[in-house]
Protein backbone atom coordinates (compact mmCIF):
# COMPACT_ATOMS: atom_id res chain seq x y z
CA UNK A 1 0.00 0.00 0.00
CA UNK A 2 1.88 3.10 -1.17
CA UNK A 3 1.08 5.97 1.11
CA UNK A 4 2.94 9.15 1.90
CA UNK A 5 2.58 9.45 5.64
CA UNK A 6 4.98 10.98 8.14
CA UNK A 7 6.74 8.18 9.98
CA UNK A 8 5.25 5.43 7.77
CA UNK A 9 7.30 2.31 8.62
CA UNK A 10 6.49 0.29 5.49
CA UNK A 11 10.15 0.11 4.50
CA UNK A 12 11.26 -0.75 8.03
CA UNK A 13 8.82 -3.54 8.89
CA UNK A 14 11.21 -6.41 8.10
CA UNK A 15 13.74 -4.99 10.51
CA UNK A 16 11.24 -4.01 13.24
CA UNK A 17 9.29 -7.27 13.14
CA UNK A 18 12.56 -9.24 12.82
CA UNK A 19 13.73 -7.78 16.15
CA UNK A 20 10.37 -8.45 17.80
CA UNK A 21 10.33 -12.06 16.55
CA UNK A 22 13.64 -12.70 18.35
CA UNK A 23 11.86 -12.03 21.64
CA UNK A 24 8.19 -12.82 21.15
CA UNK A 25 7.06 -16.31 20.04
CA UNK A 26 4.56 -16.62 17.15
CA UNK A 27 1.02 -16.87 18.49
CA UNK A 28 1.65 -14.13 21.07
CA UNK A 29 -0.49 -11.02 21.34
CA UNK A 30 0.78 -7.51 20.63
CA UNK A 31 -0.78 -4.04 20.47
CA UNK A 32 0.15 -1.33 17.94
CA UNK A 33 -1.71 1.64 19.47
CA UNK A 34 -0.26 4.37 17.18
CA UNK A 35 -0.84 2.39 14.02
CA UNK A 36 -1.00 5.11 11.30
CA UNK A 37 -1.16 3.27 7.96
CA UNK A 38 -1.26 -0.07 9.84
CA UNK A 39 1.93 -1.11 8.00
CA UNK A 40 3.47 -2.53 11.19
CA UNK A 41 0.15 -4.02 12.35
CA UNK A 42 -0.21 -6.10 9.20
CA UNK A 43 3.48 -7.10 9.24
CA UNK A 44 3.03 -8.30 12.85
CA UNK A 45 -0.10 -10.18 11.79
CA UNK A 46 1.86 -11.85 8.97
CA UNK A 47 4.44 -12.96 11.54
CA UNK A 48 1.71 -14.92 13.33
CA UNK A 49 0.73 -12.53 16.13
CA UNK A 50 -2.75 -11.52 17.22
CA UNK A 51 -2.72 -7.75 16.85
CA UNK A 52 -4.71 -5.01 18.55
CA UNK A 53 -4.33 -1.86 16.47
CA UNK A 54 -5.41 1.62 17.54
CA UNK A 55 -4.81 5.31 16.88
CA UNK A 56 -6.05 8.66 18.14
CA UNK A 57 -7.24 9.54 14.63
CA UNK A 58 -10.07 7.94 12.66
CA UNK A 59 -8.50 7.23 9.26
CA UNK A 60 -5.76 4.97 10.70
CA UNK A 61 -8.55 2.97 12.33
CA UNK A 62 -10.21 2.61 8.91
CA UNK A 63 -6.92 1.34 7.45
CA UNK A 64 -6.34 -1.06 10.34
CA UNK A 65 -9.88 -2.49 10.13
CA UNK A 66 -9.40 -3.12 6.43
CA UNK A 67 -5.89 -4.55 6.66
CA UNK A 68 -6.39 -6.71 9.77
CA UNK A 69 -10.07 -7.59 9.89
CA UNK A 70 -10.94 -8.05 6.20
CA UNK A 71 -9.23 -11.41 5.71
CA UNK A 72 -10.92 -11.90 2.35
CA UNK A 73 -12.85 -9.65 -0.03
CA UNK A 74 -16.11 -8.77 1.75
CA UNK A 75 -19.34 -10.00 0.15
CA UNK A 76 -20.74 -6.51 -0.59
CA UNK A 77 -24.16 -8.05 -1.19
CA UNK A 78 -25.76 -4.63 -1.65
CA UNK A 79 -23.37 -3.80 -4.49
CA UNK A 80 -23.12 -7.23 -6.13
CA UNK A 81 -19.65 -8.16 -4.85
CA UNK A 82 -16.23 -6.57 -4.32
CA UNK A 83 -15.44 -6.00 -8.02
CA UNK A 84 -18.83 -4.33 -8.50
CA UNK A 85 -18.18 -2.16 -5.44
CA UNK A 86 -14.97 -0.93 -7.08
CA UNK A 87 -16.82 -0.30 -10.36
CA UNK A 88 -19.41 1.68 -8.45
CA UNK A 89 -16.72 3.86 -6.83
CA UNK A 90 -15.14 4.47 -10.24
CA UNK A 91 -18.27 6.06 -11.70
CA UNK A 92 -20.59 7.54 -9.09
CA UNK A 93 -22.99 10.36 -9.88
CA UNK A 94 -20.75 13.44 -9.36
CA UNK A 95 -21.89 15.80 -6.61
CA UNK A 96 -20.89 19.45 -6.12
CA UNK A 97 -20.86 19.03 -2.35
CA UNK A 98 -18.56 19.74 0.59
CA UNK A 99 -15.28 18.59 -1.07
CA UNK A 100 -16.14 20.38 -4.31
CA UNK A 101 -16.87 23.65 -2.52
CA UNK A 102 -14.19 23.60 0.20
CA UNK A 103 -11.29 21.78 -1.47
CA UNK A 104 -11.91 21.91 -5.23
CA UNK A 105 -10.40 24.30 -7.78
CA UNK A 106 -13.88 25.56 -8.77
CA UNK A 107 -15.30 25.70 -5.25
CA UNK A 108 -16.69 28.50 -3.12
CA UNK A 109 -15.31 28.05 0.41
CA UNK A 110 -17.82 29.05 3.09
CA UNK A 111 -15.34 31.53 4.61
CA UNK A 112 -15.28 33.49 1.35
CA UNK A 113 -11.64 32.85 0.41
CA UNK A 114 -10.52 31.94 -3.09
CA UNK A 115 -10.94 28.28 -4.14
CA UNK A 116 -8.57 25.88 -2.42
CA UNK A 117 -6.61 23.88 -4.95
CA UNK A 118 -6.43 20.53 -3.15
CA UNK A 119 -8.30 18.77 -5.99
CA UNK A 120 -9.35 19.31 -9.59
CA UNK A 121 -13.05 20.17 -9.90
CA UNK A 122 -13.75 16.79 -11.51
CA UNK A 123 -11.99 14.81 -8.79
CA UNK A 124 -13.60 16.86 -6.00
CA UNK A 125 -17.09 16.12 -7.41
CA UNK A 126 -16.14 12.45 -7.81
CA UNK A 127 -15.03 12.30 -4.15
CA UNK A 128 -18.31 13.93 -3.09
CA UNK A 129 -20.22 11.41 -5.21
CA UNK A 130 -18.53 8.45 -3.52
CA UNK A 131 -18.96 10.01 -0.06
CA UNK A 132 -22.63 10.57 -0.73
CA UNK A 133 -23.07 7.00 -1.96
CA UNK A 134 -21.28 5.46 1.04
CA UNK A 135 -23.35 7.55 3.42
CA UNK A 136 -26.58 6.40 1.78
CA UNK A 137 -25.54 2.72 1.88
CA UNK A 138 -24.56 3.05 5.54
CA UNK A 139 -27.83 4.84 6.38
CA UNK A 140 -29.76 2.05 4.65
CA UNK A 141 -28.00 -0.44 6.93
CA UNK A 142 -26.74 -2.59 4.04
CA UNK A 143 -22.99 -2.47 4.86
CA UNK A 144 -21.18 -4.50 7.49
CA UNK A 145 -18.67 -2.56 9.60
CA UNK A 146 -15.77 -4.12 7.67
CA UNK A 147 -17.39 -3.39 4.27
CA UNK A 148 -17.90 0.20 5.35
CA UNK A 149 -14.21 0.46 6.31
CA UNK A 150 -13.05 -1.15 3.05
CA UNK A 151 -14.99 1.44 1.01
CA UNK A 152 -13.56 4.31 3.07
CA UNK A 153 -10.07 2.77 2.88
CA UNK A 154 -10.29 2.77 -0.93
CA UNK A 155 -11.61 6.32 -1.01
CA UNK A 156 -8.76 7.56 1.24
CA UNK A 157 -6.05 5.81 -0.79
CA UNK A 158 -7.46 7.06 -4.10
CA UNK A 159 -7.97 10.61 -2.84
CA UNK A 160 -4.44 10.72 -1.43
CA UNK A 161 -3.01 9.79 -4.83
CA UNK A 162 -4.60 12.79 -6.60
CA UNK A 163 -4.22 15.37 -3.82
CA UNK A 164 -2.45 18.54 -4.96
CA UNK A 165 -0.04 18.68 -2.02
CA UNK A 166 3.64 18.42 -1.30
CA UNK A 167 3.31 15.60 1.23
CA UNK A 168 0.89 16.74 3.90
CA UNK A 169 -2.40 18.66 3.86
CA UNK A 170 -1.10 21.75 5.68
CA UNK A 171 -1.55 23.60 2.40
CA UNK A 172 -2.03 22.91 -1.31
CA UNK A 173 0.21 23.64 -4.31
CA UNK A 174 -0.36 26.84 -6.26
CA UNK A 175 -1.18 25.10 -9.53
CA UNK A 176 -2.60 21.64 -10.15
CA UNK A 177 0.25 19.13 -10.30
CA UNK A 178 0.40 16.21 -12.72
CA UNK A 179 -0.93 13.65 -10.16
CA UNK A 180 -3.78 16.05 -9.28
CA UNK A 181 -4.87 16.10 -12.93
CA UNK A 182 -5.19 12.31 -13.05
CA UNK A 183 -8.58 10.64 -12.69
CA UNK A 184 -9.37 8.95 -9.38
CA UNK A 185 -8.55 5.26 -9.66
CA UNK A 186 -9.85 2.41 -7.53
CA UNK A 187 -7.58 -0.61 -7.77
CA UNK A 188 -8.28 -3.93 -6.02
CA UNK A 189 -6.33 -4.50 -2.83
CA UNK A 190 -4.93 -7.75 -1.48
CA UNK A 191 -6.83 -9.19 1.47
CA UNK A 192 -4.56 -11.19 3.78
CA UNK A 193 -5.77 -14.28 5.57
CA UNK A 194 -3.54 -13.93 8.63
CA UNK A 195 -3.99 -16.44 11.43
CA UNK A 196 -4.35 -14.16 14.46
CA UNK A 197 -7.41 -12.93 16.26
CA UNK A 198 -7.16 -9.18 15.68
CA UNK A 199 -8.96 -6.18 17.13
CA UNK A 200 -9.09 -2.49 16.20
CA UNK A 201 -9.99 0.34 18.56
CA UNK A 202 -9.66 4.12 18.64
CA UNK A 203 -8.21 6.29 21.38
CA UNK A 204 -5.28 8.09 22.91
CA UNK A 205 -2.47 5.77 23.93
CA UNK A 206 -2.08 7.43 27.31
CA UNK A 207 -5.68 6.38 28.05
CA UNK A 208 -5.72 2.99 26.31
CA UNK A 209 -2.41 1.81 27.83
CA UNK A 210 -3.90 0.40 31.03
CA UNK A 211 -6.44 -1.69 29.06
CA UNK A 212 -3.87 -3.74 27.12
CA UNK A 213 -3.59 -7.33 28.31
CA UNK A 214 -1.27 -8.31 25.46
CA UNK A 215 2.17 -9.94 25.72
CA UNK A 216 3.78 -6.87 24.15
CA UNK A 217 3.10 -3.35 22.93
CA UNK A 218 4.78 -1.64 19.97
CA UNK A 219 4.81 2.17 20.24
CA UNK A 220 5.48 4.39 17.23
CA UNK A 221 4.83 7.93 18.45
CA UNK A 222 5.24 11.09 16.39
CA UNK A 223 8.76 12.38 16.76
CA UNK A 224 8.52 15.81 15.10
CA UNK A 225 6.40 18.84 15.98
CA UNK A 226 4.08 18.18 13.05
CA UNK A 227 0.64 17.29 14.34
CA UNK A 228 -1.02 14.48 12.40
CA UNK A 229 -4.52 15.79 13.08
CA UNK A 230 -3.78 19.08 11.32
CA UNK A 231 -1.52 17.74 8.60
CA UNK A 232 -3.93 15.01 7.50
CA UNK A 233 -7.24 16.84 8.10
CA UNK A 234 -8.61 15.92 4.66
CA UNK A 235 -8.15 12.17 5.32
CA UNK A 236 -9.71 12.52 8.76
CA UNK A 237 -12.75 14.19 7.19
CA UNK A 238 -13.09 11.35 4.67
CA UNK A 239 -12.93 8.78 7.46
CA UNK A 240 -15.35 10.64 9.75
CA UNK A 241 -17.76 11.28 6.85
CA UNK A 242 -18.62 14.71 8.20
CA UNK A 243 -18.58 18.28 6.91
CA UNK A 244 -16.73 20.35 9.52
CA UNK A 245 -16.03 24.08 9.30
CA UNK A 246 -13.00 24.44 7.01
CA UNK A 247 -10.94 27.19 8.60
CA UNK A 248 -8.49 29.68 7.14
CA UNK A 249 -6.59 29.36 3.90
CA UNK A 250 -5.73 25.67 4.35
CA UNK A 251 -9.32 24.67 5.22
CA UNK A 252 -8.29 22.72 8.34
CA UNK A 253 -11.04 21.05 10.35
CA UNK A 254 -11.01 21.82 14.10
CA UNK A 255 -8.19 19.53 15.20
CA UNK A 256 -6.69 20.76 18.47
CA UNK A 257 -8.71 18.26 20.55
CA UNK A 258 -6.70 15.56 18.74
CA UNK A 259 -3.32 17.27 19.21
CA UNK A 260 -0.63 14.88 20.40
CA UNK A 261 1.58 15.61 23.41
CA UNK A 262 4.32 13.59 21.69
CA UNK A 263 4.71 16.44 19.17
CA UNK A 264 5.71 19.10 21.70
CA UNK A 265 9.21 19.26 23.09
CA UNK A 266 7.80 20.39 26.45
CA UNK A 267 5.37 17.47 26.84
CA UNK A 268 6.81 14.55 24.84
CA UNK A 269 8.90 13.15 27.71
CA UNK A 270 5.91 13.27 30.05
CA UNK A 271 3.71 11.56 27.43
CA UNK A 272 6.22 8.70 27.28
CA UNK A 273 6.19 8.47 31.10
CA UNK A 274 2.38 8.53 31.34
CA UNK A 275 2.08 5.79 28.73
CA UNK A 276 4.76 3.51 30.19
CA UNK A 277 3.42 3.99 33.72
CA UNK A 278 0.05 2.59 32.65
CA UNK A 279 1.30 -0.30 30.51
CA UNK A 280 1.30 -3.61 32.33
CA UNK A 281 2.87 -5.83 29.67
CA UNK A 282 6.14 -7.78 29.77
CA UNK A 283 7.62 -6.25 26.59
CA UNK A 284 7.44 -2.78 25.11
CA UNK A 285 9.07 -1.97 21.75
CA UNK A 286 9.41 1.67 20.74
CA UNK A 287 10.37 3.15 17.36
CA UNK A 288 11.95 6.54 17.74
CA UNK A 289 14.19 8.47 15.38
CA UNK A 290 17.40 10.26 16.34
CA UNK A 291 15.59 13.39 15.05
CA UNK A 292 12.97 13.07 17.81
CA UNK A 293 11.71 15.73 20.24
CA UNK A 294 13.11 13.68 23.11
CA UNK A 295 16.91 13.31 23.05
CA UNK A 296 18.33 9.81 23.23
CA UNK A 297 19.79 10.27 26.74
CA UNK A 298 16.51 11.55 28.11
CA UNK A 299 14.51 8.73 26.50
CA UNK A 300 16.93 6.11 27.80
CA UNK A 301 16.65 7.60 31.27
CA UNK A 302 12.81 7.52 31.13
CA UNK A 303 12.66 3.97 29.76
CA UNK A 304 15.16 2.58 32.24
CA UNK A 305 12.75 3.51 35.07
CA UNK A 306 10.40 0.85 33.72
CA UNK A 307 12.64 -2.06 32.74
CA UNK A 308 15.81 -3.35 31.16
CA UNK A 309 16.43 -1.43 27.93
CA UNK A 310 18.08 -2.76 24.75
CA UNK A 311 18.64 -0.45 21.78
CA UNK A 312 18.72 -1.52 18.12
CA UNK A 313 19.66 0.89 15.33
CA UNK A 314 19.17 0.99 11.57
CA UNK A 315 20.05 3.74 9.03
CA UNK A 316 16.96 4.89 7.10
CA UNK A 317 16.30 7.50 4.32
CA UNK A 318 14.78 10.68 5.72
CA UNK A 319 11.16 11.59 5.05
CA UNK A 320 11.11 14.03 2.16
CA UNK A 321 8.51 16.51 1.12
CA UNK A 322 8.98 19.54 -1.08
CA UNK A 323 8.68 21.90 1.84
CA UNK A 324 11.32 20.15 3.94
CA UNK A 325 14.02 18.48 1.95
CA UNK A 326 17.00 17.13 3.81
CA UNK A 327 19.63 14.87 2.41
CA UNK A 328 21.27 11.84 3.90
CA UNK A 329 19.91 9.20 6.18
CA UNK A 330 18.65 9.19 9.70
CA UNK A 331 19.26 6.58 12.38
CA UNK A 332 16.02 4.80 13.16
CA UNK A 333 15.97 3.35 16.64
CA UNK A 334 14.03 0.49 18.16
CA UNK A 335 14.06 0.34 21.95
CA UNK A 336 13.08 -2.84 23.72
CA UNK A 337 11.98 -2.45 27.33
CA UNK A 338 11.68 -5.71 29.26
CA UNK A 339 9.56 -4.82 32.27
CA UNK A 340 11.08 -5.26 35.76
C1 LIG B 1 4.78 7.78 13.39
S1 LIG B 1 3.06 7.63 13.08
C2 LIG B 1 2.83 5.88 13.09
C3 LIG B 1 3.23 5.30 11.78
C4 LIG B 1 2.84 3.86 11.61
N1 LIG B 1 3.62 2.96 12.43
C5 LIG B 1 2.96 3.47 10.15
O1 LIG B 1 3.85 2.65 9.81
O2 LIG B 1 2.20 4.01 9.34
C6 LIG B 1 2.35 8.12 14.60
C7 LIG B 1 0.87 7.85 14.76
O3 LIG B 1 0.55 8.11 16.11
C8 LIG B 1 -0.73 8.70 16.19
N2 LIG B 1 -0.78 9.40 17.48
C9 LIG B 1 -0.15 10.54 17.85
N3 LIG B 1 -0.34 10.79 19.16
C10 LIG B 1 -1.10 9.77 19.63
C11 LIG B 1 -1.62 9.45 20.92
N4 LIG B 1 -1.38 10.22 21.99
N5 LIG B 1 -2.36 8.32 21.05
C12 LIG B 1 -2.61 7.52 19.97
N6 LIG B 1 -2.15 7.80 18.73
C13 LIG B 1 -1.39 8.90 18.56
C14 LIG B 1 -0.82 9.58 14.95
O4 LIG B 1 -2.16 9.84 14.60
C15 LIG B 1 -0.05 8.75 13.92
O5 LIG B 1 -0.92 7.95 13.16
Provide a descriptive summary of the structure in words.
The protein is of the alpha/beta class and 340 residues long. It has two domains: 1-69 and 196-222 and 260-340, 3-Layer(aba) Sandwich (Rossmann fold), CATH 3.40.50; 73-190 and 228-259, no CATH class. The protein is 37% helix and 14% strand. It contains 13 helices and seven strands. The chain has helices at 13-23, 39-46, 58-69, 82-90, 98-103, 121-139, 145-162, 178-181, 205-208, 228-231, 233-240, 265-278, 296-303, and strands spanning 29-32, 50-55, 199-202, 216-219, 283-289, 307-317, 329-339. It has a seven-stranded mixed β-sheet, covered by helices on one side. Strand 1 (29-32), helix 2 (39-46) and strand 2 form a beta-alpha-beta unit. Helix 1 (13-23) crosses helix 2, helix 3 (58-69) crosses helix 7 (145-162) and helix 12 (265-278) packs parallel to helix 13 (296-303). The relative contact order is 0.16. S-adenosylmethionine binds at residues 5, 7-9, 33-37, 39-40, 55-57, 60, 204-206, 220-222, 228, 260, 262.
List the helices and strands and how they pair.
Layout: H1 13-23, E1 29-32, H2 39-46, E2 50-55, H3 58-69, H4 82-90, H5 98-103, H6 121-139, H7 145-162, H8 178-181, E3 199-202, H9 205-208, E4 216-219, H10 228-231, H11 233-240, H12 265-278, E5 283-289, H13 296-303, E6 307-317, E7 329-339
Parallel strand pairs: 1-2, 1-4, 2-3, 4-5
Antiparallel strand pairs: 5-7, 6-7
The structure holds S-adenosylmethionine (SAM).
